[in-house]
Amino acid sequence: MDTESTYSGYSYYSGRSRGSHRHGERSRDHHKSRSKDGSRSEKSVTINAPPAEPLLGDSSVLGEEVQDDNWGETTTAVTGTSEHSLSQEDIVRITKDLEDSVGLDCRRYFSLTLAVVLGLLVFLTPLAFLALPHLLWPDKLLVCGTACEGLFISVAFKLLILLLAVWALFFRAPRAGLPRVFVFRALLAVLVLLFVVSYWLFYGVRILDSQDENYQGIVQYAVSLVDALLFIHYLAIVLLELRQLQPAFSVCVTRSTDGETRHYNLGQLSIQRAALAIMENYYRDFSVHNPALLTASKSRAAKHLAGLKVYNVDGPENNAATGLAHSQSRAMIAAAARRRDTSHNELYYEEAEHERRVRKRKARLVVAVEEAFTHIKRMQEEEQKKASGDVMDPREAAQAIFPSMARSLQKYLRTTRQQHCHSMESIQQHLAFCITNNMTPKAFLESYLTPGPTLQYGRERWLARQWTLVSEVSVTSGLKEGAIFLLKCIDFSLVVTAKRIPYIQLSEEFIDPKSHKFVLRLQSETSV
Amino acid sequence: MSSFLSQLHFQLSCALQQRIEICKLRQGEHLILGFSIGGGIDQDPGQNPFSEDKSDKGIYVTRVTPGGPAEVAGLMMGDKVMQVNGWDMTMVTHDQARKRLTKKNEDIVRLLVTRKSLEQAVRHSMM
């Protein structure tokens, strides 16, 4: 393995923060200045007014990205310190992340404390109803008979079931932070609060004030409260969990950079919850975003624009700015249409050449990996006891056979522009994993031959961690036919369109199995 | 001379269709016409003995009952039925053809038929 390749894997990371993250920082500043809600952290979604970004804003940073393409060749003397050095942008980014996450946690803790208070109130209320008469007027109370004591058991078990049910439904680790409040949960909390307050009012007026002696009646009142709470919990299950299970909308998600499209079926959700579901599926289904694959089309576009220059011959007569720009762009379009452009030719031959090169490298890689795998053999249990010579664990075995395939693997990754997705460490880890689980060389190579889903790679390669939901309608409103919203990331965005699943009218037709009869096709004759 | 012949041929090909009017005969509770049909788009055209082109899926008269209304009206065996009372019969299934001929509320059917023998007779006379 040549030394340049060893370090270039790490230098890329710091080089990247100097290079194209500048582009990311610029647009992030745009976002920061325009967004009202600045809270943003890992996988959080914030609302953003649709920003009016200049369409050709990318061309200004084109130069930097073109430079970035040749990092493998131009990066030379990178020492070990580059692994640990932090550039200025990294520091700024980290502090920003910190303060953003603190803001979101405040909101999270606030809602958590509110929920805990409400829960305690709900649980302690029946117990209070039962205990207060004994504390306040114990001598006037009638003795609790058998039926009344039976009701105690019922209250106890119902409270236990309610406790378990609430724990199962509500006390789960939150998956994400959504921009707006979850409408159904808020409504349910208000309902529960009103309900408990009204029970307390009734209790306070009719029982505490008048000091009712009929203890069985009080116990039955407490039991009715617990029953009603169980029913409210049932309502919560139906509203929060069951209602959106039935698919009602089919959403089409397209990535703006390379057009990769997927379709999902969702139920009746609000836009923010639909966005959450889509993002969870994004990490599993979409292949990892690879900016290196897009540079070719960008350079072609730049060449088209740069080929023509517009001169204003009429002088300062046509002063209206918009009219001038309009006529200029029209002139450029017309000239571009007439120009004999051979760029399609170049593209065709370039792509054919690239295809050939990739196939050649792939063939060499497959052969090298297969040969490397033949060098190690799994030792059986009986042989292990003999322990002759150097016995290696999977990691050492991987390190032993890695050098023989490293060069061809590196060359292949460079040809397919995937070299920044895999570091040497991760490749060796994957090799050890494959050796441990008795995988074939083909199985080992599969994750390098095709770009896998985003989750497959380490977190730092995702390039998709902070999301913004851009929508023209309120994000707590439900999905509708033809709803369009955007999930914006720094480097790309996902365009989501929703369509209603059509109403299916199914009718039945009964066919008697005995009715399947056939005749030969002869000329039949009918007399009329 | 050849143009005259081609004109004549054109006129003759128009005249090779014959209009036949059959009055249905009441027999019991059925109205019968007195012939049998074969063919249709759902049938096998290769087995049609009367058609010249063996991919012709039209309706052909396969039998004419002697003394029946069809024979009286001049229908002959091998005729291809083109129209019945204005309904087209060149692209119908066998059952549809039967239905169009046996409508209960019609007493008279007017057929437009074409006959191979007519063509051959005229062509022979032209030679």
UniProtKB/TrEMBL annotation, chain A:
One Gene Ontology cellular component: plasma membrane
Top-level taxonomic group: Eukaryota
Statement: the UniProt record of this protein carries the keyword Magnesium: no
Pfam families tied to this protein: Strabismus (PF06638)
Transmembrane segments: 109-131, 151-170, 182-203, 218-240
Membrane-related topology note: Multi-pass membrane protein
Family: Belongs to the Vang family.
Membrane among keywords: yes
Residue ranges, annotated region (Disordered): 1-59
Protein's name according to its UniProt entry: Vang-like protein
Low complexity biased stretches: 1-17
Compartment(s) of residence: Cell membrane
Lineage: Eukaryota, Metazoa, Chordata, Craniata, Vertebrata
Annotated InterPro entries: VANGL
Basic residues compositional bias, start-end: 18-34
Keyword annotations from UniProtKB, A to Z: Cell membrane, Membrane, Transmembrane, Transmembrane helix
Species of origin: Oncorhynchus tshawytscha
TrEMBL record, chain B:
SMART domains the record matches: PDZ
Main location: membrane
Keywords associated with the record: Acetylation, Cell membrane, Cytoplasm, Membrane, Nucleus, Phosphoprotein, Wnt signaling pathway
GO BP terms in the entry: cell-cell adhesion; establishment or maintenance of epithelial cell apical/basal polarity; neurotransmitter receptor transport postsynaptic membrane to endosome; neurotransmitter receptor transport, endosome to postsynaptic membrane; receptor clustering; regulation of signal transduction; Wnt signaling pathway
Cellular compartment(s): Cell membrane; Cytoplasm; Nucleus
Topology relative to the membrane: Peripheral membrane protein
PROSITE patterns: PDZ
Keyword Nucleus in record: yes
Alphabetical list of InterPro entries matching this protein: PDZ, PDZ_sf, Synaptic_Scaffolding_LAP-MAGUK
Molecular functions (GO terms): protein kinase binding
A GO CC annotation given for this chain: basolateral plasma membrane
Protein name per Swiss-Prot or TrEMBL: Tax1-binding protein 3
Organism name: Oncorhynchus tshawytscha
High-level lineage: Eukaryota, Metazoa, Chordata, Craniata, Vertebrata
